[in-house]
Amino acid sequence: MVALVQNEPISLHDFHKNVHRTPYDAFVGETYSPHLFKDIIYDFIQKFGHLPPTSFELSDIKKTSTYRTMFDEFLSFNHDDRFYEDSCITAAVIAEQGYPQLSSDKKLQIAKYTWHAVTIEDSANKILPHVKAFQEDFFRRRISENALLASFQQNLLNMYNWWDPIAANLITISALDFITGLLMEEDPAYQGMQLSDAALAWPDFLRRQTGSAVAYACMLFPKDSCSDTSTYIQVVEDMAYIVNILNDLLSYHKEALIGDCNNYVHFRARVNGKTVLETLKDVAEDILAANERIIRVLQSTSPESIVAWRNFVYGYSDFHFCSPRYRLKDFNLASE
């Protein structure tokens, strides 16, 4: 472990700008080694017990009823053909690959949730006043003046049709946290905020706000198949943690290739006084440890839920390996 260097706090903007001038970023830019990253990922998937798929193609998702129904329903929001198609594919693949055991109506509901989150995030700076008013509108029972946000309001209300009140509440709160996290990321004051070495909890707090991960954990347990939330509630936090940092681990390659350091891995490396390489290894180990805890708890509280969890986390992993966005096919891991 690298000893914590007590540097002067730096802004997130300067942290990005000076990426090649800090010891915390020795694994970035021209010093980034895809070979070393591949070693970390290869070791991780061996221990994780799930290899990347060899035949699944994202284009297959366009043949599903989830994709076709959602694509037709939200067509009025299509202002960019490429983005619209990609957002529908992303939403459908997470629902289809992550929740294969659920009925078609529930998978469609989950896909719609993802589609709204992706689309709102992409257009937030264009509709920022409406995004700022989203939660107040929600609690005052006002329909948002923005059609996209009004559609998201209805999507959240519909959660109570399929999920127990506790689970649906957690899904809704997760969505509201996502909106708050989005506002934080869009706020210039936060973009220029001083990042202190002592702010050890900040990277995980910000990640929980922006990831909407609790929602995806609770969606595994609709009320018609799991009416007792106490059977899985002890693992929701670990599930959400994996949803967030598995994405961060598998996203790192494509971010490093473009020199992007405005992410969880870099923030965590910064506040912990470690190199990014060390941090990536820590993240991989944290995922494995959290996954083991989930299995141990479910073995005693809800053994049948282990299959649902593995379906989700393996499907979620497959999404990253199959999507061209993440560039993980660069490593050809499925053939090793």
From TrEMBL:
SUPFAM superfamilies: Terpenoid synthases. InterPro entries: Isoprenoid_synthase_dom_sf (IPR008949), Trichodiene_synth (IPR024652). Keywords: Lyase. One of its GO terms (molecular function) is carbon-oxygen lyase activity, acting on phosphates. Gene3D superfamilies: Farnesyl Diphosphate Synthase (1.10.600.10). Coiled coil: none annotated. The keyword Lyase applies. Pfam families: TRI5. Belongs to the trichodiene synthase family. This is Terpene synthase. It comes from Gymnopilus dilepis.
